[in-house]
Structure formats: structure tokens, C-alpha cells
Amino acid sequence: MPSSLLLSTDAVAPRERLPQWRDWIWRHFGGLESDFYGDTGFDGRLCAAHAGDVILTRLEGGRHRVLRSPQLARRDDGAWLKIVAPWQGSATVHQDGREASAREGGWIIYDTTAGYEIDNPEATEHLIVMCPKAQMAERGVHLPPLMARRVGGGSGISRVALDTMRATYRELPTMSDTAARGAGELIMQLVRLSLLELSGQETAVTQKLALRDRIRDHVARHLRDPQLSIEHIARALNCSKRLLHGAFAQDDLTLASYIQQQRLQACIDELRRGLPASRSITDVALSWGFGNPSHFSRLFREHTGMSPSEFRRAQQRG
């Protein structure tokens, strides 16, 4: 399971909650001042986890503002593209003379290397997603004019990105580290595609990449289902099998091989972490959608050079 952080004012004395929340926000988000519109009371909860290089935080609290000065932004070594996606309440981002607002069903992106202010004028429940700026900048997106913009979330690729960010946050507690890293990479790719669409650069290529990412997301969420198949995916995504195969046409793996590889890697990860003595290797294979133990063993040996039993013993010795 990916590492996580949980902070709540429930266990803090009422008179200490405002300063405690300020300290938590300052430390978790790397130098962020908090203001409470003059309120003297506050309740809040913050739960964060990593999906590879991406950090996802669920923030619940009363009305508040946060501010990062340009001077502090320049001094900080961290460089992130930050997304606020409200579940409840609203958020307004101010940065570089631009202003963008969003409520449930929308999301806004901004840059932590420049000063910014975010207004949350009512009780909020937000998903905050932080993507490493360097990795996003390497992917061909011209970032500055797209910051402090409402990307969307109601339809199209921005909706796929929003759904994926929310689903990843919900499912992180049940994910292996390998699956979490893959989910983080998927989020960054979908954010990139959303920004490309926002900047008017959507092409047939980006549409194909978007479909491939939707397929990968569906596979990740249904990997344990033994009924997962190309036909199953085509029905779920409401597209033809030809389009599904086309989305993987330039990859080294076919879609069927990709599903098989993801299941095999999940089994390897579980065996590497160690199993209770009562848990059999067959149980592991079946739990990840393999219906034929002999087929699973052959694939496992081809991939690792060892049988599943030999691999398990080697992990126990190590």
C-alpha cells in the first residue's frame, strides 16, 4: 500500500485548531499561509497518499484562504503543477493576473513556482493533486498560459482525467506500489492531454492516446475480474474492438498481452511482499484473474526464470 498521511483537528483542543491547521498546511504543501476570514473556530481533515510521483490529498474544512507569496515560491526547491478539484464547495485560484473558479465537477490547475492565492469561501471538500512540473514540462506542453485556468471536468478528456484522479484516490489503499505508480503516470498523461485540449491542440493522436489511457484505467480497475476481456472492455467503453486494438497498434504489446502482463506483475508483487503460510500460489493467481494455474505457472517461469514456488522460496530466504 502506498504511504499515507492523515491529520484531523478532531483530536485538537478548539483553541489550538487554527494554529495547528496553519502548521499542517504550511508543512504539507511546502510553505503555504492560511487565513480564515476572521473566523475564530475551524474544523478540518487532511488525508494524503502517493501514487508514484503524484501526491493526492483530500482536504475537508471550513472556509479559508491560502496564499503563497512570489518570494517564497522562488525560494522553494519543490516544483509542482497543482490541481484543485472540489467535491463540495468552491475554489477560486488567482495567479499571474488570472482568475479561475470551479465547483463540483470541475478542476483548476496552477503552478507552485509562482505566487498564488486560493479562496475557499465556504465549507470545502477538495481533492488536491500535485504532479511534478519537470515531468509535465518534458511532455511538450507549453505551461505558462494554461496556469490558473479552469480546465473543465464536465466532458471530454478533462472529465476522464477528473474521474481517474478521484478513482485513484479512492482505490489507493488497496493498490500495490507498482499499481499506484502506474496510476500516477496515467494521471499525468491525462492532465497533459487535458492541457493540450485546453490549448486547442487536440489531434487524432491525442484522441488515440486518450482512448489508450481509458483502456488502461479500466484494466487497472477490473484486473481481478476473471471476465475481463476485449469484449468486456468494448462494452464498458462503448466502442468497437477494432478501436481498442488500434489504440495499442503502436505498442510492443497487444491489448490481450497487456492485460496478461498486468495480472502477472500483480502476482509477482504479491509474492514479493510475502504470503501467509495458509495462502497458496493458486489462490494468488485466481485472485488476479488467472483461470488456469498451469498457464499461469508457464507464464511466470517465462517472465522470471523460476517457477512460482521457487520464486516464493527465494523471497522467504531473502
How many beta-strand runs?
12
Instruction: Tell me the radius of gyration.
Output: 22 Å
Number of domains: 2
Based on CA inertia axes, which overall geometry fits? Answer: globular
What is the fold-level CATH name, i.e. the topology of the largest domain? Jelly Rolls
> Which strand order spans the largest sheet, edge to edge or round the barrel?
1-3-4-11-6-9-12
CATH superfamily of the largest domain: Jelly Rolls
Tell me what you see in this structure:
The protein has helices at residues 17-28, 70-75, 133-137, 156-171, 177-198, 204-221, 230-237, 241-247, 255-273, 281-287, 293-304, 308-317; strands spanning 4-8, 33-35, 44-51, 54-61, 64-68, 80-88, 91-95, 98-102, 107-111, 116-120, 124-132, 149-152. With 318 residues, it is an alpha+beta fold. It has 2 domains: 4-221, Sandwich (Jelly Rolls); 265-317, Arc Repressor Mutant, subunit A (Orthogonal Bundle), CATH 1.10.10. The chain has a 7-stranded antiparallel β-sheet. A 5-stranded antiparallel β-sheet has the order 2-5-10-7-8. A hairpin with a 2-residue loop joins strand 7 (91-95) and strand 8 (98-102). Helix 4 packs antiparallel against helix 5 (177-198) and helix 5 runs antiparallel to helix 6. The chain starts with a strand and ends with a helix.
Topology diagram in text:
Elements: E1 4-8, H1 17-28, E2 33-35, E3 44-51, E4 54-61, E5 64-68, H2 70-75, E6 80-88, E7 91-95, E8 98-102, E9 107-111, E10 116-120, E11 124-132, H3 133-137, E12 149-152, H4 156-171, H5 177-198, H6 204-221, H7 230-237, H8 241-247, H9 255-273, H10 281-287, H11 293-304, H12 308-317
Helix pairs in contact: 4-5, 5-6
